[in-house]
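Attaching the record inline, Q. Sequence:
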Amino acid sequence: MDDTTTPSSVRRELNQKFDALSIFRRDRASALYHFCVAVEMSTYPYTADPDLVMAMGRRVLEASMRAIPGIYRNCPAVSAAPTVQFNPAAFAEAMELVEFAFCYDQIMYCFELVDRGQFEVRYDLLEQPTIFIYASGEESAADTLLRSHEKDSNIELATEADKAVIIELAHEATRELEKTILFFDPDAISYPITPALRAVARRWARVLTTARKWEFPEDLHIGNVTFGEVRKFWGALAAIACIHDTAHLIVAQANAGNRPRGSIVAVRSRDDWGETDSGHRRYRRRCSGGAALVVYVRSQGLGSERSHSAIF
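Structure, as predicted:
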């Protein structure tokens, strides 16, 4: 950069570097799939440190806010694409996307606050940083208040009894999964959703939904669905994702880094996703359009929280 550098040119150059990432040269289905794998492998499931879990979940959430629109904007949709399979090269590109997108989001969000008048920005020609400051003391105080509401204690309502139920459900799922898990590839597993496992998922979904603080009324309409249906949808998918991750931790012997990457993201048809909860089926029927990406952030399992990804 030289003496012609301005905040606008910094913003433009960052956008260009983001759009030039290698993952964006792949087709959309492959990019989405490998991004989800990278999100899963970027976190450490069920750590005992809730602050670390919160930080990891927030990191992948903020990366997703730039990465997913970037994939849809830059990657071509292939109408007759074959079934996506794990590709180590694409995975490396997706990991690069996660890391870049997280840092990119921090800077671009500051630029967006400048656009809204909450931040001011200048470029220091001597030291060469781009500097953001609050436009006023009132803006700083308002932001501090908003951040205080993001604490775990303001989101999580799980009682000790709820956590005990979740741990027991995880044990039940483990006992059932240990009977049925198969490796169909050196880096991928499969398992059937048996009636017993489906029953565990339904109970797990109910506990997850009731243990979460929901501030909107259930009859609030969001398009053609209600918020109550969204809650059930979230609970059902979060329960399936917890079971899916449990299966991978079993074969990895609880070492998160050894989880099979080729199956870490649950990829199923819409019909397959509809077997857990009636609210999920209603939600699925009302949502039209093509395939969708779901990234769950902060679903509870084994007494702590983490993020999950799935494609359906």
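The chain has ten helices and nine strands. The radius of gyration is 21 Å.

More tomorrow.
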